[in-house]
Amino acid sequence: MGHQASEPSSEPAKPVAHQPFIPAEQNIPEFTLKAIIFGSIFGILFGASTVYLALKAGLTVSASIPIAVLSISVLRYFGRPTILENNIVQTIGSAGESVAAGVAFTIPALLFLSTGSHGEDYFNYVQIMTLAATGGILGVLFMVPLRRSLIVAEHGNLPYPEGTACADVLIAGERGGRMAGLVFGGVALAAVYKALNSIFSFWKEAVTFKTSAAAKLPNAVVTTEISPEYLGVGYILGPKIGGIMVSGSVLAWIVLIPLLTVLAIPDATIDGQLASLGFLQAKIDGWRATNDPERYYRAYVRLIGAGAVTMAGIITLIRTMPTIVKSLKGSLSSAKNVGGPAGGLRTERDIPMPFVIIGSLALVGVIAMLPILPGTFGGKLVMAGLMLVFGFLFVTVSSRIVGLIGASSNPISAMTIATLLGTCAVFLAMGMGGDANQPIALCVGAIVCIAAANAGATSQDLKTGYLVGATPIRQQMGLIIGVLVSTFVIGLTVKGLDTAFADPLVPGSHGIGGPKFPAPQATLMATIIKGVLSQNLDWSFLLIGAGLSLTVFLCGVSPLAWAVGVYLPIGTTFPIFIGGAMRMLCDKLRGQKEESEISPGMLFATGLVAGGTLTGVFSAGLKAIPTGDSDVLTKCQHIGEKLQEQIGKSIDLDLYSLIFYVLMGFLLVKVAIKKTSDPAKNPA
Amino acid sequence: MSEPSTDFKPAVAADEIQPELTFRAILLGAVLGIIFGAASTYLALRVGLSTSASVPIAVIAIWALKARHGKRAILEHNIAQTTGSAGESVAAAVVFTVPALIFLGFPMQVGLTTLIALTGGLLGVLMMVPLRRYLIVKEHGVLRYPEGKACAEILRAGERGGTSAKKVFTGFAIGALFKSLQAIFGGAKATIATAIPGFRGAQAGMDVAPELVGVGYIIGYRTSVMMMAGSALASFILVPTIMMIGEHMATPLAPGTQPLGEMTADDVWFTYVKQIGAGAVATGGFFALLRALPAIASSMRASIGALKGGGASAAGTARTDRDTPIGVLVVGALALVGIVWAVPAFHMNLLGAVLILVLGFLFSVVSSRITGEVGSTSSPLSGMTIAVLMTTCGLFLLAGWEGPSYARLALMIGAVVCIAISNAGTCSQDLKTGYLVGATPVRQQGALLIGVVTSVLVVGWTAYGLNAAETKHVPLAQSFSVSAESIERAQSVQGPDFSGVAADQLATVNEKSLPRREYKFVRVPQASLPAGVASGNFLVDEHSRAAVARREDGIGSGRLRAPQATLMATVIDGLLTHQLPWNLILIGVAIAMFVELLGINSLTFAVGVYLPLASTMPVFLGGLVRKFADWKYGRKSDAEEEPEGTLYGAGLIAGASMLGIAAAMMGFVKGFDSKTSLHPTIAFLKDTAIGALSPGRLADAWGLVVMLFIGWLLFRGARDPAK
Question: Which residues of chain A lie closer than 8 angstroms to B594, CB-CB?
């Protein structure tokens, strides 16, 4: 049950004579134009990629190290880069990933709120961008005063694993740069595969095995989306988490759906349930005709999944509460111990405090006044106050937890739930309950979530900078630039995916929440807000889901990843499990366990994720270009579909499609088990 | 996790020679085995439960067999307890399976019952011989064997005396006291249950069972919570879901016979969720087997290697490591199978005989692992038997074998295997005890064989006698004739001769006063019966082919419900007529898969799905006490070696199961008489003193208080007195 976190000594470490890689006295090119440009490009790419993955699978992949590796190799072509330039690229780029995660986890919840809240109306580009930018910048600004206490004063206590690993990569320089080939290789393979697969439809995107509605085990479904990004994510996450996620889907698709089918629910009951959830009659009729598993998934299992995710989130919150409180206390006490103003050294220059205070107040003030946001003036004032309080609170917590256990274990959703619960409680106390205030509560949650996510990334970057001898103020400026640049694209991606994958039959429908982009975390946030603020939930199925999460928690398994698996289609989790199994296979073949984050397999897998997701985003873009009676994407897909038709006459299409997938898996294994020296082992 | 066995020091060192396989130990064990076997037969027929007997026998042995001539008696106590334990485990398994014969249309006979019990029991002992090295020695530290562990603690405490004996005794007294309240006076209800308001169909419950609290403490928090989680899934998720969704259905959902809306939560659990649980147990067992097979293979190779090393090396083996020679084992097992094949009463063919051997071995591994993990009391014997029957019938269907005679064959295989695996579980508990106290395995195995042989006869007779005492024959007002073919297949039984009774007195005549004659015992299906006559078993005159009377066996009606046997008959019937609820079983299979994917042991979880929540809650309570005790007293969590609370828990197990056995015997004595009444004093106590404490709904609260109090006492008892 325990946390992996090692107990930090409460005693703040003595400011040891820390010697950065580039001494403070040495002034070398750092905040250069090319660094800013490339940082922004990487930020945009990884931001878009993260949005895609987070909406589809509720997962994110850390970007700092891949960006550092890429930067070292790319910047070489534009004059000799310094290590500090590479650091700025990595700093700017990483902001995109963290802001994107925060956005994708919260803002789509606007679509899932009660009908009476008109949340959908606020789901527009400007709104998304504004929230993302504000949250991101707040995260950076709040981290300014914390840097001296967390990064400098606690240098010996808080390891910041990702930040330290990233510094190792930067210091290893050239040798690390050679690894970039692996990332590029992954990106290229994934891009080609995904383009042929989902743009040109040369083979099927998913392979399905399903029993008939009259079988012994009726309507059991096992589907695999044979896409590069899931393979890569699964490889990065490893077999344990992959197993836990697919376990949830197995429960949903091989236990619950068959059970519901066995129970022979009258058609009218299911159709009524579906209609009450807002499905179109045409769709309902189609599902009824074949007694399709999707019918039960949509009518019941989704609700059970939402209950499971919500309960799992609350359990995670309760379990991390001690860590959160301890982190807060630790941060506050170490802040007290940092006496005296900073010296004039280059490596000690932060954004001046007055700017920080005025900047954050101004930001929040502007947000509150903006007419595009929901709510009355009084409501907005409350909202601004809550953003400041919760924002600072959870930035403090997030930056410390990340220091202890790393960015990938950062319980962002738990903190967002806490924010939402707190916000809703304040709203209720002030008589601001009801549907109309749901979007306001969500905005507070979104800003805090984005700020906390970005604070985590920021603190890793600042740790890296501290180790390599960067100038903090330049990093902080870089981070703000990174946030601003990436938010343009993040907003575009969220909105674009939502429109491109909407049901063409239904005007005003959404891609997010549909089969391709289920957005599990956003459902969790919406369920909490609806439950507390309006108390108008369909409890029976949510309770069943909550009970399932509790059961799994009792078995000693952390329930969040599992519950996300219940909520997601099995087509998403099964390939992640396959990726995890590949990792296990590679460990066996290589004869040693546990790869570092910059081993060949991991970098190649990261490349697969980036390539696959970016091509996915690109295909959404193609969908937006109209050509006569249809659009570019549909035209392209027709080409391959004709080919498939021909091939399908002679061999089984599933089998044919699997050939390409197996080939990709084979390449991943081959790359992963090749012996190479690990630049992380370099004594830094 | 597994500690190397070389570091382990038993109570009696390997090089120390003490009296062990003595006549008085065997005599005491055999006598107690017979008594407890008979009592268990009654209890299992009556309510479908069995209580582990080895711990009570150990207590009696300590009291009865004193050390002589300055020697230690601990190994003698161990032998007595080992010999005696076989009776109970054979009895339970016989009752769970053999009476299914009646439901399939065959009479229950003493000779056959005894023969089945004997072969199954001996097979179980033999199967555990090659498995001992792997399950007991290698997995020491992983598999707890809570009852075996408790037994060893008691034997050691009995020898040492002092504070540890006091601790065991306190536990014993508490366990006995509260069990007596429940089992004899009926003051605290046997099971407390309450529906959860606002959550239709969800029902929380807990057996008032001090022994299960002790078991939970010994197996530890991790295992107990996983088992409870399985039951919670069944009771809080599956039952409410089925009830909520099926509420508005007008027609019954197979295999149920009434619409879901009219069913209670208990009905739903028994009709549907039990089947799901059986599927989960079978799959969990399969996964456990898969994981265990490599280790079993390697330890078997080691055994065979030792055999090839020559007889000379046997003398060189440490005393505590000496098993029955593998040659004896092979010859014995083959002989048993040969007997099963050759004896006509079994109606066995070669495939069946081979199946017994193969399935017996595989499921012995599963059974032993389960008892090692969750304890004998929670071992899902019927679930494993269902898995055996499914495998057997599956093969039969592949071979195209259907019909009543194959149903009997399947049941024979199932029964022998069920008895074998039940006894394998008990043997492993005994061998664990022996391992802990330093017994000689070969002597224990000998004692077990003796225990089986002495107790099977009484088990067979008891089951037969109880059935006969309550069997009724109802003469038919309107006779009908039966096909010649079915008479040819049928077996002969004795029954009352109604021919001398006048037609108008048939309904009132006392059948006991009539002379006996021979009939054919025929099961007639509904299709070949005249309208208005329900299907069932009939006594048929062999020559005229006229059905004379309907036979209502004692088992399956009224007080001898034999729930497991009914289940087995349903399963076999369903399998061979393609009507088994495969969908439910397969859903259970998928549940085991989902748990396995979580990276945890699905077998423990599956056992929880199969058992009612009320039976796993007390185990969980014990596990919870363990967690708090480990935390409070600063011990390593769930460590096998924990000197204080384990003693107390062992006492609880001993006291409660002693009283459980006593209650069974009280019932047994009266069992042949259909009118039961409590002793006047006890009845008075029950109605006034204790009854007053627990009126109506308060009985649940009272039971809960009792359980929490026991938990608290155990928590206090777990503290280290030296500190």
Answer: 247-248, 250-251, 254-255
Asked whether B52 and B416 are in contact (CB, 8 A), the reply is: no
Query: Mean pLDDT: which of A407-421, A578-592, A625-639 is highest?
Result: A578-592
Nearest CA to B370 among B306, B299, B437, B282? B282
Q: Is A488 exposed, middle or buried (0-12, 13-18, 19+ CB in 10 A)?
A: middle
Question: Is B244 part of the contact surface with chain A (CB cutoff 8 Å)?
Answer: yes
In this predicted structure, which of A329-338, A651-660, B478-487, B598-607 has the lowest mean pLDDT?
A: A329-338
How far is the C-alpha of A381 from the C-alpha of A83, rounded, in Å? 44
Say whether A254 and B593 touch across the interface (CB within 8 A).
yes
DSSP alpha helix (H) spans, B438-494: 441-470, 484-489
| Six token digits for residue A282 | 């045409």
Q: Which two tokens stand for residue B717?
A: 């008892």
Of the candidates B614, B561, B462, the residue with the CA atom closest to the CA atom of residue B48: B561
- Can you give the pLDDT at residue B596? 92
Interface contact B395, partner A, CB < 8 A: no
User: What is the rounded (10 degree) CA torsion for A124, A127, A132, A134?
Assistant: 180
Q: What is the pLDDT of residue B346?
A: 80
CB-based contacts of A72: which residues, under 8 Å, 6+ apart? A81, A86, A169, A170, A173, A174, A176, A177, A180
Which of A489, A490, A558, A654 minimizes the C-alpha distance to A237? A558
Determine, for residues B590 and A540 on separate chains, whether the beta-carbon distance falls below 8 Å.
Answer: no
B161: left (phi over 0), alpha (psi -120 to 50) or beta: left
Residue with tokens 């005492």: B469
| Count of Cβ atoms closer than 10 Å to residue B112 Cβ | 22
Phi-psi region at B295: left, alpha or beta (left = phi > 0; alpha = psi -120 to 50): alpha
**Distance of alpha carbon B419 from alpha carbon B33, whole angstroms:** 16
The structure tokens 């990595």 sit at: A90
pLDDT digit string (tens) for B272-292?
Answer: 998 899 889 889 988 988 888
Q: How large is the ipTM?
A: 0.82
What three-state secondary structure class fits B194?
Answer: strand
Element (H, E) at A631: strand A630-631
pTM summary value: 0.83
Residue B366: phi, psi to the nearest 5? -60, -50
Share of chain A above pLDDT 70, in %: 92
Q: Are B718 and B625 in contact (CB under 8 A)?
A: yes
- The proportion of chain B whose per-residue pLDDT surpasses 90, expressed as a percent, equals 23
What distance in Å separates the CA atoms of residue B466 and residue B450, rounded to the nearest whole number?
A: 25
The pLDDT mean for chain A works out to 85
The candidate with the shortest Cα–Cα distance to A74, out of A44, A43, A35, A45, is A35
**Radius of gyration, alpha carbons of chain A:** 25
Interchain pair B600, A258: CB under 8 A? no
Which residues 222-241 of chain B have a CB within 8 Å of chain A?
Answer: 222, 225-226, 228-229, 232-233, 236-238, 240-241
Chain B neighbors of A258, CB-CB under 8 A = 583, 586-587, 590
Per-position DSSP letters for A253-311, written without gaps between them? IIIIHHHHHHTT--HHHHHHHHHHTT--HHHHHHHHHHT-HHHHIIIIIHHHHHHHHHH
Q: How far apart are the first and last CA of chain A?
A: 34
3-class SS at A180? helix
Q: How far is A340 from chain B (nearest CA, A)?
A: 44
Check pLDDT > 80 for residue A576. yes
SS3 B547: strand
Kindly report the number of other CB atoms within 10 A of residue A350's CB atom. 19
B378 vs B375: CA distance, rounded Å: 6
Smallest Cβ–Cβ distance between B587 and the set A255, A550, A556 belongs to A255
Q: Does B593 touch chain A (CB under 8 A)?
A: yes
**With an 8 Å Cβ cutoff, is B128 touching chain A?**
no
